[in-house]
Amino acid sequence: MINVAILGYGTVGSGVYEVLTKNAESIKKKAGDEIRVKYILDIRDFSDAPNAHLFTKDFNVILNDPEVSIVAEVIGGIRPSYDFTKAALLAGKSVVTSNKELVANKGYELLKIAKEKGISYLFEASVGGGIPIIRPMHQCLAANEIEEITGILNGTTNYILTKMINERLSFDEVLKDAQKKGYAEANPDADVLGIDACRKIAILSSLAFSMQVSPDKIHTEGITGISLTDVEYAKATSSVIKLLGRSVLNSDGTVSAMVAPFIIASSNPLANVDDVFNAILVKGDSIGDVMFYGRGAGKLPTASAVVADIIDASKGRRDIFWGEVDYENVRDFNTYEHEFYVRTTDASVDMKATVYGIFGSVKRIVREDMPSGEYTFLTKSFTEAQMKENVEKLAAAGCCKVGSVIRVL
Amino acid sequence: MINVAILGYGTVGSGVYEVLTKNAESIKKKAGDEIRVKYILDIRDFSDAPNAHLFTKDFNVILNDPEVSIVAEVIGGIRPSYDFTKAALLAGKSVVTSNKELVANKGYELLKIAKEKGISYLFEASVGGGIPIIRPMHQCLAANEIEEITGILNGTTNYILTKMINERLSFDEVLKDAQKKGYAEANPDADVLGIDACRKIAILSSLAFSMQVSPDKIHTEGITGISLTDVEYAKATSSVIKLLGRSVLNSDGTVSAMVAPFIIASSNPLANVDDVFNAILVKGDSIGDVMFYGRGAGKLPTASAVVADIIDASKGRRDIFWGEVDYENVRDFNTYEHEFYVRTTDASVDMKATVYGIFGSVKRIVREDMPSGEYTFLTKSFTEAQMKENVEKLAAAGCCKVGSVIRVL
User: Which of these, A290, B30, B310, B408, has the minimum number of CB atoms within 10 Å of its CB?
Assistant: First the structure.
């Protein structure tokens, strides 16, 4: 009998309880032993719930119970999750979690304690909800040097962009709809500003490149600046706009990582990942491109990933680890190179000469029902620093207003 | 030091050697010990190769060397692979393989020996080339009851169908091109008749439903009957034709499994899997749809999956197992139910009445540049047995010729 405590009885926590109960038989077969929920920690009152006898408000009850060998931390955030996790690990209890913020920021420290104690700290559910990605990346790609990771890592923003593309609605309209459907929070900042995606690409980078990549060092942009007009221009070049988390291993061992909207060609497998789905494209030196696709959030998908980790922890799986934080391991954002999409408005007739003077040769994009005065183009490859300068020059030239600048994958 | 023998130095075997050599440093880190190729078995002469000293033509040299703890069987086929594998396992050596034919037919027996001996029999590379699928399905989905598996499991046929769809070429034209490019064998039967896909869906079914599902019991059709005309009609309904391996767990514990071309809507994530890429869509009760995508074949992708298994075997991973063969576990194909696409030629004017009389209400498909005398339609759901009878009735009615019948997913 393996005794588990669930910390937090919100969406994921109640899902973990449900999956453990519903699939108890097959889980027992896979774990080789019965897995029982002994405690659920939540500060709220659940005295009317059918499983009311499991609830406690006191973490010390769990911490001091030697029967509890696995703790599922599904509270989220840093406090009090960090303290609970650290205490549990120090007490010799394995911890599994869906908490991306904690893993992204404190992964190295917590993995180190787990390693020293000979127990597990597992976090399959922290990226991609139920999509198996942490484990396949670590284990199945063991024979590969991972070179690049590119992912649609946030379901809320992907839902919003998909609606904008398919139904020609504005960002604000779709956001309201997403909030009504429960796909976006009342305060949607963590999603639409890219913060959530940033934590996830930080975790994937840390794992793939075996060193803690701090989310603070990853340049992050959201989708609040994406207009319907940009979506239409992208469509005219058989492309779509997606919010991507992207991380590349450079030959000097540093990492180039960022979160931003990108224009990607329809032929890219990520282009067809729609609605709340997530997908992560991993490029290995031997395997080439591999993609993992599925629901990136939701009660049961996320819960099933947490439960898979509980099973693994019960079997003593503890091979995931990465090196310590090194604030120098992320390369300066200003050196990253991309091709860019630039949309201008109120463009004057001598636009072309000015644009060519600043950017060199560009490829103009035209689309149906294009209002006069819009001059939109794709540039050749520039560093972020060069591009910033170019855009400032264009704005200063006075021949147009710069509407938007988006990177092209 | 872990000593490995590679059986067979063809495409995959030489790839395994290359990956083990090229990534030796990181593999050592992941395995926790150096992995060395001590022997390569091949009946051909490699005396001029730089690694000539590793070659042997005598399997007994490997079998009788107690230093060899892992054997990579990448010969393919049943003989002599089966004998070599069995002997190696009985001698206490773990075996890893890319041999789908052997795993599909003898998996239970070989897994049982490995289990009894406390060693590993691993076969990640047998399905989906380098795509991690066996391990994620077994391990990450541990918390799920798997309900359905649907996959594009053969790169050659997917390449052919993609070319037919995108370049409007006939099956024969594309097959010739694929053979020239090395994507299809001189004798393409195993691919184009669906035999390869059948072995792979047999392995996935065995693993997902924990019982050996014999390939002999799986109804299998290839793509030789798919015409460009069918591709055009599918396109007119925003669909594509793909060769799918499909396996569903029924509520009575039996499995419905088959390989056949299916018409699938463009919105299905499998519809955008093109060229030689493979993808496997797994449906779990908690996780919903998850898809794994990547190159289903090729030297280095497949080799990297074999090497990942070598690393796992070196760490004593041996949790994969399934139950014995039960020829009653696959439900009678005649009972499977689908909607169908039917294309007829030389149709007479009273066609509609005859079709409605036999199939009930149908949905006619029209397309641009459709020749007169073609009457093509989608039916409601029928069992295979009912459909066979319906098609015979239609042929007997004398109002048309039946051109093709394809299932709709």
Answer: B408
Nearest to B272 among A130, A272, A312 (CB): A272
CATH number at residue A16: 3.40.50.720
- Domain check: are B12 and B77 in the same one? yes
Q: Do B180 and B143 fall into the same domain?
A: yes
Distance CA B377, CA B367 (A): 11
Residue B140: which pLDDT band, with cuts at 50, 70 and 90?
A: low
Please report the number of interchain residue pairs, chain A to chain B, with beta-carbon separation below 8 angstroms.
Answer: 170
**B154-B159-B162 Cα angle (round to 5):** 120
> Are B151 and B272 in the same domain?
yes
- Polymer length of chain A: 409
- Calpha distance B13→B99 (Å, rounded): 12
The total number of structural domains in chain A stands at 3
> Which of A295, A325, A352 is at the close of a domain?
A295
Select which of A38, A106, A163, A200 is catalytic: A200
Q: Which of residues 63-82 of B touch A (CB under 8 A)?
A: none
* B193 CA: distance to closest CA in chain A (Å): 26
Q: How close, in Å, is residue A130 to chain B by CA atoms?
A: 6
* Last residue of one domain, picked from the residues A96, A126, A156: A126
Calpha distance A315→A305 (Å, rounded): 15
Residues B167 and B282 in one domain: yes
- Suggest the residue from B166, B267, B304 to mutate for an interface test with chain A (most A CBs closer than 10 A): B304
B203 and B245 share one domain: yes
* Gap between the Cα atoms of B133 and B139, Å rounded: 10
> Are B294 and A288 an interchain contact pair (Cβ–Cβ within 8 Å)?
yes
Name the residue range of residue A375's domain. Answer: 334-408
- The per-residue pLDDT for range A191-248, each reduced to its tens digit, is 999 999 999 999 999 999 989 999 999 999 999 999 999 999 999 999 999 999 999 9
Cα–Cα dist A408/A406, whole Å: 7
Instruction: Give yes or no: residues A290 and A204 share one domain.
Output: yes
CATH number of the structural domain spanning residue A356 = 3.30.70.1150
Q: Is A275 on the interface with B (CB under 8 A)?
A: no
Q: What is the pLDDT of residues A49-88, one digit of tens each?
A: 999 999 999 999 999 999 999 999 999 999 999 999 999 9
CB A286 to CB B301 under 8 A? Answer: yes
Average pLDDT value for residue range B182-187: 88
Mean pLDDT, chain A, integer: 94
- Interface mutation target, options A133, A144, A146, chain B, most CBs of B under 10 Å: A144
- List, as ranges, residues 96-125 from A with C-beta within 8 Å of B: 124
Residue to substitute from A158, A267, A304, A306, interface B, most B β-carbons within 10 A:
A304
Mean pLDDT value of segment B9-16: 95
pLDDT band, very low/low/confident/very high, at B349 (cuts 50, 70, 90): confident
Any catalytic annotation for residue B200? yes
CA–CA gap between residue B360 and residue B356 (Å, rounded) = 4
| pLDDT at A140 (0 to 100) | 59
Same domain flag for A105 and A227: no
For chain B positions 278-337, those within 8 Å of chain A (CB to CB) are 284-295, 298, 300-301, 303-308, 310-312, 315, 319
Are residue B175 and residue B283 in the same domain, yes or no?
Answer: yes
B328 and A333 Cβ atoms separated by less than 8 Å: no
Q: Are A31 and A70 in contact (CB under 8 A)?
A: no
* Mean pLDDT across chain B: 94
The answer for residues whose C-beta is within 8 angstroms of residue B1's C-beta and 6 or more apart is: B33, B34, B36
Report the CATH number that the domain containing residue B226 is assigned in CATH.
3.30.360.10
* Residues A69/A63, Cβ–Cβ less than 8 Å: no
Q: What is the ipTM of this complex?
A: 0.89
Nearest CA in chain A to B266: A272
Residue of B nearest to A282 (CA): B294
Nearest to A135 among B136, B310, B319 (CB): B136
Structure tokens at B130: 């380098």
pTM for the predicted model, two decimal places: 0.92
Using the beta-carbon criterion (under 8 Å), do B291 and A288 form an inter-chain contact? no
- Where are any strands of DSSP class E within B186-274? 219-220, 239-249, 255-265
